[in-house]
Hints:
By secondary structure, the protein is α+β, with helices and mostly antiparallel strands. The protein is globular.
Amino acid sequence: MTHDLHTDTTQSTLAAGLAPPGTPGGEEVTARTYGHPLLGARPVVRLTGQTVAPVEDRLLADLGYAAPDVGEPVAAGQDLALRYPAWALVHDPAHTGTALSAGVEMARAGRLVDPRPGPALEEFQRIAATLPDDHLPVFWEEVGRMFIAAGRDKQGALMFGRARAADRHATLGMDPARRRAVFLEFALAGALSAKDITAYVGELSGRPDPVAAYRDLRELALRRTTGGLAPWPAMLKDIGKLAKAAGLDVVTEHRLLLEGLVDTPALWRAADGFWTAQRKLLVPAVAASAALKKRLLWRLTEVPPSEMDAWWCGLLQEAGALDQLSGDAGEWLSAVLGRYGRASSPAVPEEVLRLLALLADRIREARTPVRFGSGAPEDRCGIDAVALVRCLDAGIPVADPGPKVWLRNWQGSPDADLRALLDDERFGPVLLRSVPRGGDDFRGLWRASSLRPGLRGIIDGNVRRVRSGALADAVLALRWLEDNLRADSLKETPDLAARMADLDMVTPLTRTLRAGILDELGWAALDEAAAEMKGKNFWGRASWPVLTVHDRRKAIAIGPGGRIAEHRLRVPDEAARFDHTPQVHFSDGQFLVLHYVNGKQRHYWSDAPDETFAVRPRMWQSLHYERDRHGYTFMAPNGRRFMGHRVLGPREERVGPNGHMFHDGRDFWWHTGDGGEAQAHRVDLTTGELAEAGLPEFFGPSLLAADERWDIESSSLAPLPYGVKDSPLGSDGTRVGLRVARDSTTGEVRYHRIDGVHGTLDGAGPTAIWGLLDIPGSEKRLVLSGGVGKYRPVVARDADTGECYWQAELKNDGWVDSEPDPVAAGTRLIPPPAFWHFLTPRDPAGSQALRQITEDTVRRLLKAAATSEEALRTAVGRLLPEVSHPLLVRGVVGCVREAAGLRTHRDRILTRLKRARRARLKVSEEDLGGALEGLVGKCSSGYRGTVAQIELTSAFFSGAIDADTAMERWLDHGSAFDWTGLPGRVGGLAVRAVSAVTPDTHRRALSRLLRFWALTPLAEPGLRRGLLDSEQRAALSDENGALMPLSITMLNSEWGRSHAGDTWDIAAFLQRGTVPRPAGVLDIQEVPEGRATPERLHRIVDELERVGPVPFDPAAAARLAEATGLDRAAAALLMAGLPHIKDDGHNFLPPQTRKALGLKVAEAKAARDTLRRLPEATRLELYDAVLPDDPAGLWDQTVMAERLARAWKEAAARP
């Protein structure tokens, strides 16, 4: 098939109606001039082709227009097919009136297509019922065009299908040229279904001219796909069939078609079956085109990873496409493997991994290493561990990993491979930071022997931090050890208990006190104002250099020189009934008080409290929902505060975002950070508008390295207020400031104070720093970050090592008490970062004493703290007499108490390490949940805690663990299954366990559960189950028994709903013996004794392991049906252990299960619906009752049917 540029140009101009008159293949276009009585002398001129002209004349005549004056031809255009209703005027004049009336109604219905497609279709159907059969094909085509014009392509395709269905009843037939045109039209619009194409292919196959038929189908394939629809499933087969009939080379035509479509997005939306079913046609076509090979290779790198990757790799290899890779092989492989970098990505398939060995030589020769991700420091991509190991084994060079990449799918790597990765100096650290850092997942890693050295290293690192790190690091490390160390950890770290016992917190506390604590610095005016705040919560709002301290009743404005003004807030009457967070800002000597209570704004100025106002919702949201800032929101030289980038006027009723501002003493700059913009704008104080983008001279671009950019939010610049000589964050005598630059290549953060002090952070840990704090009596400084926003503590770290000395949480903001953080106990209100410039040393002599404190002194302080707080205060006065300021004394006491409290955590860890190891139920949560589904109640909430609950309950009842251990992480062990229904009925699980239709994973889970159960007190008689208010949960035990609360949301069960009036927070519990009932018990039930003795449970599992599951016996099911009145399908499901009884849907049984039971889809569904009426407890009771004295009887299906029938009748007879 050749391509003629001249022909294409002619067709294009004809389609536009712009070809010269007389152009071959076109029809004349004339100017037709119409007059109308209502228009006077003004004519209406229409350019119309000859075919449509009579129709136009008739339609306009019906509207009152006179016959036209026709001029000479002015152009040539395509011979366009008539559309409905114009079609009827030419092809069915007898029904012209009907068609024209339908046209008016069609226009009316067409206006509904976009907003209400359903009613529009109903109207079109009503119109169609009034039309002759010969009109319907063209009518439905026109309706399809209306849907397409409204952007509803799927409905347009359905209308085209109706048109083709109407063809079968029409008598006039359709001109082949018109049929070709309309198929192409809808194909180009992307509104042609595969069903209509199949019918069209059949029609083309019967055409007398096979070449023309092939040309039509090929054009249809191209236009349909470029129009946005994926290829129909048999496109290549149909193309090949007609190409062969036309005498053309099939492979060549397939190649040309694919080359024309390979870059269309719709081709890659084709269903997988399009490719797999036509592989034999694809391979020779791809093999014949170097360009196609290359394009398909790189197209694979652009689509998301899927199961088709394996298929594509096989096809590309078979077609010889890999030969197109040479120097770019490493780049291609990087792109292919890079698609697997998301946490949700599948593992790299084996077929892709096999390509590594084939490409290894080419990659080595080109010296282009494979890159997993971009390598940039901010790149957080994942590296498939198996792919990485195979690359290294094949000798393929691999680029160094970025600092934030991680390994995924490392569980799929053999043990030896993990050991090799751990030994690799580049990827060993990546593996260790990729494994779970805590919880059950971390504890489960000990099963991988190759990981144990790395896991020991993680534990050792945390122990070292507790022993000799800074205090905050030690706190975090000790909490990690408490969460993750168990008795089984001693097996791999035998000296762990001894090392833990030796941890006394002396070194971390000593190092921290020497480094400096927050309470050594203070602002007297702030301390006084904070002491007057009586509310539970209070805040500090910036109007730099003025800070407004307020609670819900009072506001005080303070500056570097002391108190400036105060105001008693006017509070809306209904505020007490709602959570109410006022905002108070100081401007021009007055307070702007902002109240937002119960969705209503009531704002006022303090000099006119009766004149409340509200602002536009969007304006209020710009402030109310703005993220917290560092406090660099300034007052202008006239004393008026910026609100947004404009200065507030007197009593102006306006609010706006605080933004982040810079001030060099003359000009102001404003930055919101919206959209990630790394730029600020100078403010024109005269107009209030933002001027050109830029930064103060302090942030000159020449100060940046090649890959650096300014971190605007961390940087600051402000003039020192009058009377302030210096700042603990550094000053040059007239200004304070910090510039922070971040390197996008290395991740390093470089900071520079305005007084010349500078340094670099390596990018690890918090990097959003905002200050470098001078400590009284020390040459070293602390790097400060955090402290902006609720629950984000100020973090103080060593400027050289990055170790964290203390974290002081702003407990005066949000849903927490206003009690200060222990490590900042002397500072009731921690100010925003911008106001740390006004902190001064509270007690220079006391600070000097802390710089020189010895470990012996700290040891004595910790010893005193173990006695009482009063004893500790006395010890501080005796051992540190130089510390005299009461707020610094309070700060030292708080730090010592924080460290001393950690000993309690250490002691709990030691107690746990010495406990006997509890029995483990070695099944996965997923397998056990699937095995229990439908036999015990299931709640709508709960998360993967069933296994842990069974283990903990059995261990608690046996005395292996105490109550504290049983209740540790109670909420984390929530279960979606009410397994408290198992005691006394657990034998019922045996019927499902031995059934041949039970999946092997579920059978294994049930076997292990039955074996475990038989070894625990859960198999003993005398248990009770009950409901309690989970707010009063507590594990209890004495010599008479034990009670274990369980995090199961029982409110969703019928039993729980019966007590919903008592509390909404209902949990379950199990009780052994006669332990006294605690408060909060709502109901209690005796557990039946059941037939599942420990001996029987063991014998059932032994027999199952010996002979395997019992095959389904249709004759036994028929006997059960006859005895109970159940239908055959219900009896079969009951005999088989009620497989998939909880699954919804019509065809709920897997095909292999339905085949084994001999059931049809409809009868299986009806049986499921019948058996679902049985409560889960009744299902288990039925199965437990059929448990024979000799468990081997479970394998006699006839006897089982008889026992099950008796149990069924007994259950039916009970009220």
